[in-house]
Write a structure and sequence with these properties.
- This protein is of the alpha/beta class and 601 residues long.
- It folds into three domains: 235 residues, Aminohydrolase, N-terminal nucleophile (Ntn) domain (Glutamine Phosphoribosylpyrophosphate, subunit 1, domain 1), CATH 3.60.20.10; 198 residues, Rossmann fold; 159 residues, Glucose-6-phosphate isomerase like protein, domain 1 (Rossmann fold, 3-Layer(aba) Sandwich), CATH 3.40.50.
- The chain has 18 helices and 27 strands.
- It has an eight-stranded antiparallel β-sheet with strand order 3-2-4-1-10-9-11-15.
Length: 601
Amino acid sequence: MCGIIGYIGDKEAVPILLEGLKRLEYRGYDSAGISIINNDSISCIKRKGKITELENAPEIKNLKGTIGIAHTRWATHGEPSEINAHPHFDCKQDISIVHNGIIENFQSLKEVLIKEGHNIRSETDSEIIAHMIEHFYSKETGIEQATLKALRYLEGAFGLAIIHKSEKKIIAARKGSPLVIGLGNDEMFVASDVSAILDHTKKVIYLDDGEIAEITKSNYTIKKLDGAEVSGQVHEINWNLDEIEKQGYKHFMLKEIFEQPMSIENTLRGRIKNNQIKIILETDPAEISRIIITACGTSWHSALIGKHIFEKLTDIPVEVDYASEFRYRNPILKESDLLIAISQSGETADTLAALREAKSKNSNILGIVNVVGSTIARESGTGIYLHAGPEIGVASTKAFSCQVMSLLILALHFRQKKGLPLDQALLSEISGIPKKMDQVLHESSRILDMAKKFKDTKNFLYLGRGINFPVALEGALKLKEISYIHAEGYPAAEMKHGPIALIDENMPVVFLAPHDTTYEKILSNMQEVRARGGKIIAITNEQDSKLSSLTENVIQVPKVSDLLSPIVNVIPLQLLAYYIADLKGLNVDQPRNLAKSVTVE
C-alpha cells in the first residue's frame, strides 16, 4: 500500500525523505509528495507518477527545512493526480497530513465540513483528516490534542503523520495501518516500513493499534487514543541495507528467487536438533481438535499445501479459508480450534481481522510471519518467524517457500508433541533441501529459453494434483501478477470439467508431473492436451520416454519427498513468470495496480 516517512532533526529533511520514499517504492504507488516546515509555513511539492518526477521538480531545490513528512500514494478514493496526491492540507495551509488506510465515513464527515465552510480540494478520503484536525485546533491545546479529538470521529483504518507550521514536532497515529518510530541521535523518524529509515537507525518502536505519538527531535511520548500514556518497546532491527539492495541482480524478484536456498536455511536454523524439532510454542497439540489456516494471495496457496501436510502428519482435520471471507460469514469457532494466520508482512488487513475474530471467540491462534515486530506477530503471541530476510519484490517468492517449510516444521512439531514417531529420512531430506533448490536454480538458462518461446502468449493453464495443485495456483498467480498474461490454475482432474474447452494450438499448459501415484493420470491429461494442439510444459522429477514423446519442454527437478516437492517445483514456475515479464519489458518489481502489503480491506 501507500508509503509514509517523516523526519525531525537538525539535517535537511528533503534528501532523507526522498531516499526513504525510494526505499518504499516496492510497496506500489501512483504519486508522491513532500511537505516541509520552513519559517512558520509549510511548503509542499506533489507529483503524479514516479518519485523521480518529484525529485526532478525544479522547485525541490528551494524546499528547505529540518522537519517534514512525505508519502507515496496508491489510489483508493480519487484517480491518480497531483491534487489527489499526499500530503493534504487544511483550509489555512497550517496543517499537513499523510495517510495510509481508508476512512470509511469520510463522505458524511465531508458533508458536515463543507456546511461549516471548509474548502475540500481533492476527491480523497484522506484530506478530510486535515480539516477535522483544523476543526479542533487551538494554539492553547496544540496539534496533538486536536488530532486526538479528530481521530475519535474517524471510522476505518489509518496510519498518519501530521505537522503544524508553528510546532516543532510530528504527530503519528495508528489504527489498522502499520507505523514505526525510528530513534536516532537528536533526530527522529516515522515510517510505514523500517526499510525507509534503516540507513539512519536500527532502533525502532512499532506503534500498536489505537496509539498516537508526539515526536520531537530528541524525545517522544506515546498515548492511547483515550489519552492514557504508554511506554513503547524499543526493538533492534537485525538486518541491514545490503539485504535490500539488488546486489547485481536486474530485479529484486530475481534476487529473491535465487536467495531461496539461503532463506530456507535461515527458516530451519536451530529448529532441527538431534533428530528432534525444536520450537517453543504456547499451543498444546493435544488440546486441538481442528485447525483453520487463513491467509491471502500467495500465503493462501502455502496454506493449501499446509492442509495436506498437517492432515498427513498429525491426523488433525484442517480447513483453509480466504482471510477476506472468513469473518463475514460468522465462522463457527471453538476453544479447541487453532487458527493459523499466515502473512509475509504480518500486516495484511484481512488476515489480521480473521485473527482477531478467532481471538474474540477464545480460539487458539498462531502466526506465521516474516516481519519481526509486525502486528500479527505481536497479537498472535506465539508462532514462527520465517527469517527469510526482507522481501522487496511485490510478487512474493522466497516468503512462499519459507511458509511451506514453516508449515512442515510446525506439523512435525505437532506430531512430536502428540507422541507420534518422526520420519528420520524426512528430517534428513529437509536439512538437504537448500542444495536441491540450488540444482533447480542452475536450470535458469533453460527456463529462460522456454520463456522466449512463450512470452507472446495470451493465456496459460497450470495443472497439478494433490499437494502440487496449490503450486499450480501459485505458478498461475505469479504469471498474472507480473506479466499481465491471463493464467488459471486447476486440479488436473478438473480439466475435463470445463477448462479443456479453452485448449487449442495457442494455449500452453504447464503440468506439475512428479513421479508419484498420480503420474499416469497426469500423462493421460497431457495426451488430451496434445490431441487438441495445446503446448505442454512439464515440471517433473524423472524423465522417461512417455513424457519425452509428449513434449520437448521439460524441466527436471530433483526427486524429493512428496511433502517437500512444492518447494522445488515452484522455482521453475517463478523463473518462467519472471523471464516472460522481463522479456516483455515490464516493471517486474512494481507490477501495475499491485501493492506489496495490503493493509486495508
